[in-house]
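This week, study the protein below.
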Amino acid sequence: MKHIFIINPNAGKHDSRQRIYDMADALRNQHELEVQCILTKNQGHATELARKLCESGEELRFYACGGDGTANEVANGVIGYDNAAMTVIPVGTGNDFLKNFGEGAALFEDAENLWNGPRFPMDAIDVNGRIALTIACSGIDARVAADVHKYSESPLLDGKGSYIYALAVNFLFKGITSRWTVELDGEAVEDDYSLVAACNGRYYGGGFMPVPEARMNDGVLNTLVVKKVSRVAFAKFVGPYAKGEYHKFPHLAHCSTPQVIRIRSQKEDIVTCLDGECMTSNDVTIRLSDKKLNFFGPEGCSCNATAR
């Protein structure tokens, strides 16, 4: 079995390459494992690397070394290959994916806790053929996510701080709602919408948790739809929404478990965010992927550790 470290050299606020190299060397020297480290060169490169290696048919374990974007790219390359599994070593700014593991997230920082960990299947979200691990969102949250990348470079802002700043800019200057047709399992309604969030996991935006009951291996997408909201109402809604308390606002937010979500716009492209990576289209179809992701982690860890 090969152990492949795919490293995003631009992830996080500090250069973590040497730390990753040292982990890889420790696995090679202490456990006599076949280990390879590869640096990504541009956006999408991690997907290309992982997919090409998976096509060899060899037994592979991938370590996505970066933030949520790197994990997303590796997952898009690995999913569907029975000979491959992946895990995450967090060196990004937000690392929302690992928050789903609760206190166990800290164990992912050291490859010594990972290399022989158990493998288990995990659900994924399919968005126009692309994969998201945790949450796929369209609307103001996605537009905010697109802006977060601009502000995350600032040494004054951490992951959540960047999100809050981007949220304030969009809230004050760009408007909250968009005119869409949203279709849930074939039932379409044209209206003004603030956001649609399809949740396989529980965290995005530096720690916001829209749907706390979402579980990453139950075959269900918990989908939250928020229609037109005034700025005053939205300001009151954001705090509870971030804590998973959408149920306190039944007149604003509705959560259900449709199998297929489709969002269409006749006026402008819809920004959709997949684990922090953004795409645009005027016709977005979201469903549970028919492929499972093979994931491995520390013994005893659970991707549903923080679910309520």
In short: Residues 159-174 form the longest helix (16 residues). The domain at 132-288 is CATH 2.60.200.40 (Tumour Suppressor Smad4). The chain is about 25% helix and 30% strand. Residues 206 and 303 are 17 Å apart (CA to CA).
